[in-house]
Amino acid sequence: MDDPELEAIRQRRIRELMGKGGGGANGQNKEQQQAQEEQKREAEERRQMLLARVLSSEARERLSRIALVKPEKARSVEDLLIRSAQMGQITEKVSEERLIALLEQINEQTQKAPKVTIQRRRSVLDDDD
């Protein structure tokens, strides 16, 4: 392989790396991203441990199945359970039946009545005169 060819390959590779990384300050940026990811992971781990203490195994199973279909709804129920546990409102493990009742209560509160609006259009042939 020729020396100019090797130099061209090196330059191309350096440009690719600079484009992906964003330059010299990239080392700090990667470290910050890794630190943030680690904090998120730890927070999620604490969250799951608290839910494990609050929910029975059947209730946790049901909540995980709900999370597969409606992740935002499951997350809001988890938040509600965690807040209740932190404020001392939950003294014993939440059973599956109690979780179902809680879900039904949340559904009733968040259900919106369908709104139908009918707009009649005037036809060119209408004789309203």
From TrEMBL:
Name this protein carries in UniProt: Programmed cell death protein 5
Organism, scientific name: Ceratopteris richardii (Triangle waterfern)
Similarity-based family: Belongs to the PDCD5 family.
GO molecular function: DNA binding
Family annotation (Pfam families): dsDNA_bind
Extent of Low complexity compositional bias: 27-36
GO cellular component: cytosol; nucleus
InterPro entries per the UniProt record, alphabetical: PDCD5-like, PDCD5-like_sf
Region named Disordered: 14-45
Domain of life: Eukaryota
